[in-house]
């Protein structure tokens, strides 16, 4: 499963789709395509977005649910938590180090 997760995250278009679902969960394929076109100026076909969503679903990052004729896509962050738990840090404060000023 980890290989599928890293493969899914490796593609920049899939990361943009995840960003869009993080901002507004429960989108249809049409909504996702519209947001990719309007907000990110990506000229990508519905078929290509559908294939990206299938990869994200296979990795467990997206869950799809049907309601009537529509299929809604929701972000699932649980697989990302597994990555964070895999390489825990000793530092209890995960904030980036502060830069010193001269």
Automatic annotation (TrEMBL):
This is ArsR/SmtB family transcription factor. It comes from Streptomyces rochei. PROSITE patterns: HTH_ARSR_2. Residues 1-95 form the HTH arsR-type domain. PANTHER family: TRANSCRIPTIONAL REGULATOR, ARSR FAMILY, TRANSCRIPTIONAL REPRESSOR SDPR. Pfam families: HTH_20 (PF12840). InterPro entries: ArsR-like_HTH, HTH_ArsR_DNA-bd_dom, HTH_MetalResp_TranReg, WH-like_DNA-bd_sf, WH_DNA-bd_sf. Keywords: DNA-binding, Transcription, Transcription regulation. The keyword Secreted does not apply. Residues 83-102 are annotated as: Disordered.
């Amino acid at each position: 499963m980890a290989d599928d997760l890293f493969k899914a995250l490796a593609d920049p278009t899939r990361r943009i789709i995840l960003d869009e679902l993080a901002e507004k969960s429960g989108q249809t394929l049409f909504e996702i395509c519209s947001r990719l076109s309007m907000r990110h100026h990506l000229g990508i076909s519905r078929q290509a977005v559908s294939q990206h969503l299938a990869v994200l679903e296979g990795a467990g990052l997206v869950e799809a649910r049907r309601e009537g004729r529509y299929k809604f896509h929701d972000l699932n962050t649980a697989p990302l938590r597994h990555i964070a738990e895999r390489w825990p840090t000793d530092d209890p404060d995960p904030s980036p180090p502060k830069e010193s000023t001269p």
